[in-house]
Here is the input.
Amino acid sequence: MAAETPAPASAEPLIQVEKFNYAYGDHQVLFDVDLNIRREDVTALIGPSGCGKSTLIRSINRINDLVESARVVSGKIKIDGVDIYTPEVDVISLRRNVGMVFQKYNPFPRSIFENAVYGLRVAGIKDRHDLEEAAERSLKAAALWDEVKDRLHQMATGLSGGQQQRLCIARAIALQPRILLMDEPCAALDPIATARIEELIHQLRGQYTFVIVTHNMEQAKRIADRTAFFYKGKLIEEDDTMTIFNHPSNPLTESYITGRLT
Amino acid sequence: MSPVSITENPFAGDNSGIQKRETIARWALRVGSYIVVFITVAIMLHIFIKGAPVTFQSKWPFVNTQFLTELPATLHVIEDKQGNHYETDVNGADAIKKKLGDNFRAEKTISYSGGGILGPIVGTALLVIVSVGVALFLGVACAIYLSEYAKHGKFLEMVRLAILNLAGVPSVVFGLFGLGAFVLTAPVFVDVPADRSVFAIPLGFTTLSFEGWDTCVLSGGFTLAFVILPVIITASEQCLQAVPQGFRETSMALGATRWQTIRYSVLPFATPGILTSSILGIARAAGETAPIMFTAALAFKDKLPWQKDLPPLPADASIFAHWEQSVSRFLGIFTESVQALPYHIYTLAAKIPQNEYAERAQYGSVFVFLVLVASLAASSVLLRKRLRAKYRW
Here is the structure.
């Protein structure tokens, strides 16, 4: 998180996906994906269901390792120039640096406080004061603090859907990751809750590098700096969001964003 | 609009017999269910009517304390010439005979039917504690491994098949297995191996000798553990699978290790279900007779497991000053053979001549047995309810 090498590093992309091929057993789902994700940008991944965008985002923190038979066929994903699929990389510390928010908000059936500090607890932080501070900081960052500060020790499952999802975001940023992956974070939310999440992403912009999978084209337009369009496991086009939506260079992209391709 | 005759009902039932078959099917199913309920209620009522009077009494404290707090004993029934019956134990028999003098007509002795059933109650409790402890540990460990760690494949299929087969093994086979494995060959630490030792590994300060644990609570408890293991593994695995996959992914995405994930985000939410499965286990373990016949149970024993002829601890002793002895005496409870309720019931029903006194002891034992198992089950259900309320998603 600390500002290490300032000027030249920011020019270099934070996440580099190079010739990435990924498969479940014999069924290949990603083909030669090349994608650079810039530091502190919000990058949206769009494309029809089954196009591999979720697989890609789940490969960035290697949570897809949990899926049996899932494997990297060839290629690399580098974060800060380090190939995260080499044995030297510890997935635990990788995941502490690459937070993730899932489609279905799923706080643990524990108190709001325990949810917020879960990542810190498993990292071995025991000091009550540190934990309370971190909980407050992350809940404030997730714009949830004012709504829950009086009931931190009540069950998180009693919150509304939008609040639960913001709690999941708070839980992820409590670890102060550099990257936040969001796999359709608003898919299970109503429009008001969705708006709040988008607002939150706007507030957090610049503090984290966001990679967001979304099915909602308007959402991508509203929140993303860059947009990447996937189709059938291939990256078709990646560019500034406005360029993608206004002047896509690939006819496939255009037919998708205009709703003629599903 | 064309005119429609009023008498014509477009929704009239047809006469093809479909409705008749529907009615028959519904009644067949209903009658089947009623029969099941009837049989269950009949069994329970029968045991209650015959057993409750043995266990309860009309005078304070309303519970037959003798029946619950005394060890089984031989019942002496003395009859005088007027046809009065006096029930007493071996000590009381002489006194009553002396008092009756010439009035004495006959004396009957009925084995095991006097006194109470404290010995079998204690024995069954100890067996259940050991077996459920062992089976929960092994079963939950196995279920966690199968559900959380093992990869799908040939090996997993084989393990599943083995568990399924284990569930089908007749309980008397478990009894013989327990006899061979725990009573005769399980390893113990001894200074000098016995002659029957299968083999002994000298360790210098002591010897690990495979000479068995003898018939005792430990042997019986381990044997029973294997009887209930399949139930506990299968049920625990289902409970683990029922925990949403999202919890695991979220936990791991927050940098938890697999074990941390299981420990904090899977097991706590599976526990209510696992406890439910152990209810079944407890009931089953308490009820099995064959597995403990060769491994733990005696038809009769006049001492409780902790009643041994040991020198008392020195007078100055606090429990802490002699903790080593205290611990070894406590563990000594588990190396004793015991009486157990199901085996006691079997003895009363099959091994002694039947008469009203034996029958009374039988029904009393069965009733107490049912009440014990039911209250164990009830307490587990309550515990599960409380945990359920705590962990909901």
Summary: Confidence is low (pLDDT under 50) at residues 1-9 of chain A. The interface with chain B takes residues 61, 63, 66, 68, 92-93, 95-96, 99-100, 102, 104, 106, 108-109, 118-119, 121-123, 155, 157, 168, 171-172, 175 of chain A (CB under 8 Å). Residues 7-107+178-257 of chain A form a domain with the Rossmann fold fold (CATH 3.40.50.300).
